[in-house]
Amino acid sequence: MKTLEIPKDGLEGLKQNWKSDIISGFLVFLLALPLSLGIAKASQFPAAMGVLTAMIGGIFVSFFAGSRLTIKGPAAGLITICAGAVTELGGGDTGWHLALGVIVVAAAIQILFGFLKFGTLSDFFPHSAVHGMLAAIGLIIFSKQIHVLLGIDPATLKGLEPIELYELIPHSIANADPRVMLVGIVSLVIIFGMPLIKSKIVKSIPAPMVVLVVTIPMALIMDFKHTEPAFDLVKIGNFWSEVRFNADFSAIGNPIFWKYVFMFLFVNSLESLLTVKAIDGLDPWKRASNPNKDLVAVGMGNALSGLLGGLPMISEVARSSANVNFGGRTRWANFFHGFFLLVAMLLFIPVIEMIPNSALAALLIAVGYRLASPNEFFKTYKVGAEQLVIFVVTILVTVATDLLIGIGSGILAKFFFHILNGAPFKGLFKPRYEFVESNDEYTISISDAAIFSNLIGFKKMFARIKPGKKVILNFTDARIVDHTFMEELHHFEEEYQHTGGSVSILGFDHFEFFSGHPLAARKAGKGNKFEIQLNTRQVALRKFAQLNDYAFNPMKVRTALKYKDFPIASGNKIQYEENFMEKYSEVGKISISDITLTQVGRPETSDTQITVVQINEMDVRIPDFALEPEGISTKLSEIFSGKDLDFHEHPEFSKKYYLRGLAENEIRAFFSGKVVSFLESHEAIHIEAHKNRLLFYRRLDLLEPIEIESLEKFAEEFAQQIQS
Q1: Cβ neighbours of residue 655 under 8 Å, at least 6 residues apart?
Q2: What is the arithmetic mean of pLDDT over 463-491?
């Protein structure tokens, strides 16, 4: 409902969107404060320096960033590098100051890379290897923080490798501090339990803030300050006196110094660029970020943070996606998140020092779990068995050695599989294609390999294509197309269709897919060796389709722009649908499908499957609106999402439904007495309208065939009412 006008930038954007951005900035601040403290402590930096980093990322970097909705701050993915740099450069304050010098030098190179337009180099790294690196970081985080959660002195863990830390877990459990462990366990229950609660109100509350609200009183009641060692509580000290020129460059001639310069540069830049790309996909207005400008801005923030004592920052994915879901519209949301952190450090340091470190350890354990959860392994396997091998190789080598060697091993494994599956050496790095342009059409014939290592060249080719034309991509002469390229092709297809053009893909009929995933790697062969096996639900749906004259396709397919800008997509990513049924009726084209909503506004990312009915190709004008059953959650959302359009002459309808939309006069005219009477006489259903298309769903869940039949009947009758 907010897509009709793209938010302005700069001061005009502040005047236009200050309310939305302040609210989102405040909610992100609640999320960022405990995470920033925990990340800093785990990185062997003073805890408050994590908050300093996020403050700089918000108040300073937001003015120079090339992206609108990303939140800049310290990231869990850099914990391993930060802690390693501090330890190998001397440990304690000495290691911290020398690590700051490393950060500043890396930041200077990062700024140079941005000016040289190196932002596109992130495309060189295969997704499975990058995800493997992040999963390895998650395992390393867990190996350290589980001991802190149990109340073990962190000083006794210094210098131990991840495998040694895992071996030490039974000993730490046997020597755990019961009261400290209780705080940690309660924190874990909150973090992992809140996403299981279906209430919209609960889902809108940041779990890390609930952890603090619960555990600070627990620590006060048990008098941690006087009965527990100092390392069990956060220590800020005289923070503002510590904010000064802290970087030490005296180790610049040491090879270890430069080892960490390149590790910071690589992981920091890669994570930040990947986040910018991901958040662009979630932006309700589909604004394209400038990755090179953003790289310069992050480099500037890292330089200032490193000079003053802070950690390296990135465009952080969990906080950035939360910003989208909380309604942030412009870069001012990032600014306000930093501003509220500044206020906290000015006024609330005594409160912050009441936070138990075991609570922060629980937050980091949750972050580590999300990076390396069993679901990550399963999702990778669904893309292809070879992707899982690359993923696992990257994890094992990273945990056993370091990040650079780990990601390098993943890239080598990827090359091995490509060569094994027929990729010619001449096509590994240079794309081979024939590009033909006519008045209204492009024909692109791709040869040899379309893979991660030559993706940059293909992206330059895609950039040459003018909007609004027909694009034919022919893969008949290709020998292998990998998952990374298919992801980029899918992204190009969605963006190009958004400009009014069309994309046709030819030549995959005789390819062997490596899995049943729609974006799986594939190679030239006799055909797809993966056959569709229907589950119990799909068998029932196929029977329903046959009885009601629907064409039925059980395969998971891309939705492209089908659900774009419907209110249901606000704060959710709808990338695929499955169990698709379609037919034409007197009211228009009716389609029924199961879609997966991926909630992107919380660090506890959750998926919800839902059955929807859509009607389009109707000969009637419909204003954009969203209609849903009235409830407590709608009352709260009215505060943030606009007013409920009530009808004084229809009090029963106004009590039953929450109606919103921008074109109020058109909506009121549309909901005539006949339409309102129909809705009053039926069970309350979610109805959304966008560009003369109607979307119906009963609840956020899958429907059985008998329920689908009822929803379909309701949708047809509603369409008949508005057409008459």
Answers
A1: 630
A2: 91
Distance (Å, whole) CA 487 – CA 498: 17
CATH number where 489 lies? 3.30.750.24
Confirm whether 391 is domain-assigned: no
Question: Considering the domain boundaries, does residue 582 fall inside one?
Answer: yes
- Reduced to 3 states (helix: H, G, I; strand: E, B; else coil), residue 203 is helix
Place of tokens 């956020």: 700
Burial 602-625 (b: 16+ CB within 10 A, else e): bbbbeeeebbbbbbeebeeebbbb
- The answer to whether residue 643 is domain-embedded is yes
Q: Tell me the one-letter amino acid at 339.
A: F
CB atoms within 10 A of CB 627: 23
The pLDDT value given to residue 3:
38
Q: What is the model's pLDDT at position 454?
A: 92
593: alpha, beta or left? (left if phi > 0; alpha if psi -120 to 50): beta
Domain identity same for 490 and 544: no
> Is 325 found in the same domain as 442?
no
Global pTM reads: 0.70
Q: How many other C-beta atoms can be found within 10 angstroms of the C-beta atom of residue 390?
A: 27
Answer yes or no: are the C-beta atoms of 478 and 446 closer than 8 Å.
yes
Based on the domain organization, do 209 and 233 belong to the same domain?
A: yes
Helix (H, G, I), strand (E, B) or coil at 428: coil
Q: Where are the beta strands (DSSP E) in 408-493?
A: 432-437, 441-450, 470-474, 478-481
DSSP state string for 309-355: T----EEEHHHHHHHHHTT--STHHHHHHHHHHHHHHHH-HHHHTT-
Task: Tell me how far apart the 2 most distant CA atoms of the chain are, in Å.
Answer: 81
The amino acid sitting at 320 is S
Taking each helix axis from N to C end, the angle separating 291-308 and 255-282, rounded to the nearest 10 degrees, works out to 130
What's the CA angle centered on 410, arms 405 and 416, to 5 degrees? 125
Q: Are 587 and 721 in contact, with CB atoms under 8 Å apart?
A: no
Residue 128: which domain range?
A: 19-372
CA–CA separation, 300 and 635 (whole Å): 43
pLDDT in tens, 580-639: 898 888 888 899 999 988 765 444 445 788 999 999 878 788 999 989 888 765 555 555
Q: What whole-number distance in Å separates Cα of residue 19 and Cα of residue 159?
A: 48
Using DSSP, state whether 387 is helix, strand or coil.
helix
Structural domains counted in the chain = 3
Nearest to 277 by CA among 403, 415, 466, 119: 119
Q: Is residue 509 domain-shared with residue 547, that is, in the same domain?
A: no
Q: Retrieve residue 715's tokens.
A: 């949708």
Q: Is residue 438 part of a domain?
A: yes
Identify whether the C-beta of residue 506 lies closer than 8 Å to the C-beta of residue 489: no
380 membership: H or E segment, kind and range? helix 374-383
pLDDT > 70: percent of the chain: 94
Question: Of 106, 386, 430, 416, nearest to 270 (Cα)?
Answer: 106
3-class secondary structure, 525: coil
